[in-house]
């Protein structure tokens, strides 16, 4: 089952959006939105970013590198690399963004 979004009341007034994975585990929580309409617009923006946004490594050793590899669902990561008919590189491909 795919994950979903939930609109919830924010403790300081307004609304927040929670993103949950398919098993119901919390993946992210939004900033506070003043209205439900604004919260729904925030979900639409999150969908757009999630579908097309780059992954930028801003960790202490990442130096802002953009990760270009296609991500796989976490459930498939424990099974090891899947080649899908091509050689799987052991070194991650990154470019400076």
How is this structure best described in words?
- With 97 residues, the chain is of the alpha+beta class.
- It is 22% helix and 26% strand.
- It contains two helices and six strands; from the N terminus they run E-E-E-H-E-E-H-E.
- It has helices spanning 36-52, 74-77; strands at 4-9, 15-20, 26-29, 55-57, 65-67, 94-96.
- Strands 1-2-3 form a three-stranded antiparallel sheet, with helices on one face.
- A hairpin with a 5-residue loop joins strand 2 (15-20) and strand 3 (26-29).
- The radius of gyration is 17 Å and the shape is globular.
- Mean pLDDT is 79; it is low at 79-95.
Give the structure's gist in a few sentences.
The strands form two sheets. Strands 1-2-3 form a three-stranded antiparallel sheet, with helices on one face. A three-stranded antiparallel sheet has the order 4-5-6, with no helix packed on it.
Report the major sheet: 3 strands, antiparallel
Structural shape: globular
- What percent strand? 25-35%
- Number of separate helices: 2
C-alpha termini separation: 34 Å
Share in helix? 10-25%
The number of strands is 6
Radius of gyration: 17 Å
Low-confidence regions? 79-95
């Amino acid at each position: 089952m795919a994950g979903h979004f939930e609109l919830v009341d924010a403790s300081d007034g307004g609304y927040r959006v929670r993103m949950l994975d398919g098993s119901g585990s919390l993946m992210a929580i939004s900033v506070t939105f003043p209205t439900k309409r604004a919260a729904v617009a925030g979900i639409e923006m999150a969908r757009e970013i999630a579908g097309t946004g780059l992954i930028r490594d801003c960790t202490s050793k990442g130096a802002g590198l953009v990760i270009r590899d296609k991500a796989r669902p976490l459930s498939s990561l424990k099974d090891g690399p899947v080649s899908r008919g091509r050689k799987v590189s052991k070194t991650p491909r990154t470019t400076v963004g």
